[in-house]
Amino acid sequence: MGLMKVFSGNEILAQALQAKLNEANVETVVKNNVQSGRLAGFGTADQAVEVFIQETDFAKANPVIEEFRLSI
What are the helix and strand counts (H, E) for the chain? Predict the structure, then answer.
C-alpha cells in the first residue's frame, strides 16, 4: 500500500493534525513545501504543507481527521 494525502494547508494546522494522528498511533509523513521553497529562494502558497498517512491506517485515522476538520 502507499501513502494518501489527508490534509493540505498551513504549517500550524498541519502540525496540529499530525499531533492528533500521532496520539491515535497513526504514523504521518509531512511534506513542507514552505520550507523547501524558502531554502530554494522562492515563496509558496499558504496551502503548501501536506500531511500523508499509510492507506492501511485510514480506518483508524478517519475519525481523528473528521473531528479535526470540524474543529477548524
Answer: 3, 3
Which residue(s) pair with 36 in the sheet? none
pTM of the full structure: 0.82
**SS3 call for 6:** strand
Residue 3: beta bridge partners? 54
16's grid cell: 496540529
Distance CA 71, CA 48 (A): 20
Cell of 30: 509531512
Q: What is the pLDDT of residues 39-57, one digit of tens each?
A: 656 655 556 899 999 999 9
Q: How far apart are the first and last CA of the chain?
A: 30
Q: How far is CA 38 from the centre of its chain?
A: 19
